[in-house]
Amino acid sequence: MVGLKVFTGNSNPDLAQAITQYMGIPIGVAMVGSFSDGEIQVEFRENVRGMDIFVIQSTCLPVNDNLMELLVMIDALKRASASRITAVLPYYGYARQDRKVASRAPITAKLVADLITAAGADRILTIDLHAGQIQGFFDIPVDHLYAGPLMIEAIKANHIADECTVVSPDAGGVERARAFAKRLGSRLAIVDKRRDKPNEAEVINVIGDVEGRDVIILDDMVDTAGTLVKSAAALARSGAKNIYACCTHPVLSGNAVEKINNSVITTLYVTDTIPAGPKMDECSKLHVASVAPLLGEAISRIHREDSLSELFI
User: Fold this and answer.
1) Burial zone of 198 (CB within 10 Å; 0-12 exposed, 13-18 middle, 19+ buried)
2) Average pLDDT across the chain, whole number
3) Relative orientation angle of helices 292-304 and 13-23, to the nearest 10 degrees
4) CA angle 7, 8, 9 (to 5 degrees)
5) What is the dihedral of CA 61, 124, 126, 190, to 10 degrees?
């Protein structure tokens, strides 16, 4: 690991610490804070000249502060003559704004990609983008990892994989759910829904046989949990036996935890791309699988210029 250094902002320091522990290296020393007027303040307290640098920062809540921290850190590293800067975004915020949904709407996911590139990032490493085509928003290499294998291990460890059905909560997630079901050796079902306005979803019906079977609702993230809870209720009405959910990014905004606690969901499997924090104490249904080994291995391979293909097996 000669010539490699890993730094982190304030979005997910515990994950960054777990990644560097997996890699067997110390985390880089940097001061990332703010001035009294709220402007971001960054100072790297060790030499980075000619180094291969990885900056770990999820752009989760507070989204804009964490994004700005990332941009300022990249700029500082670029001006300090780092050889290569890889932005490691376990969770890529603004990813849901990946297309125009109205005549005068922005494509903010593309804007964020442009900002990160303009700041000086040479490469992106991320997990489970909301839409895979966001990789094309960047003019620099993007390594897009998947948390599915980690989730499958967690599911199998809890003995709920036999005779189960993987469920996509909407038509857009069918490809993801199909790949997950194939790896798990399970059947596939789809929840047909209609969204009337942002963060609200009306479940229409269930396509597929779930009666008397354990089901796993699969999505890339859970935000307000409205879609997740309504999908679970629809599956219960269709005769599903035990209902589990599996989401990579636990955004859990608003009263999402309360909704999950009051739902028919038995367990919600998530990762630590976003820190769960006190929500772990508030929601006994949460089961967190760490992406630290996945990201640690990916960072090591990128530094050594090795292939990442084996991480997708």
Assistant:
1) exposed
2) 92
3) 60
4) 140
5) 100
pLDDT digits (tens, 9 = 90+) for 157-174: 876 666 789 999 988 889
Rounded CA separation 198/52 (Å):
40
Best CA proximity match to 278, nearest among 267, 289, 286, 268: 286
Active site residues: 193
Asked whether the beta carbons of 231 and 202 are under 8 A apart, the reply is no
- Report yes or no: 229 and 191 within 8 Å, Cβ to Cβ: no
pLDDT at 161: 60
- CA–chain centroid gap for 247, Å, is 9
Per-residue b/e over 146-177, b at no fewer than 16 CB within 10 Å?
A: bbbebbbebbeeeebeeebbbbbbbeebeebb
Q: What is the pLDDT of residue 163?
A: 74
Instruction: Report how far residue 130's alpha carbon sits from residue 64's, in angstroms, rounded to the nearest whole number.
Output: 18
Angle (deg, nearest 10), helices 63-79 and 108-119: 30
pLDDT, average across residues 104-125: 97
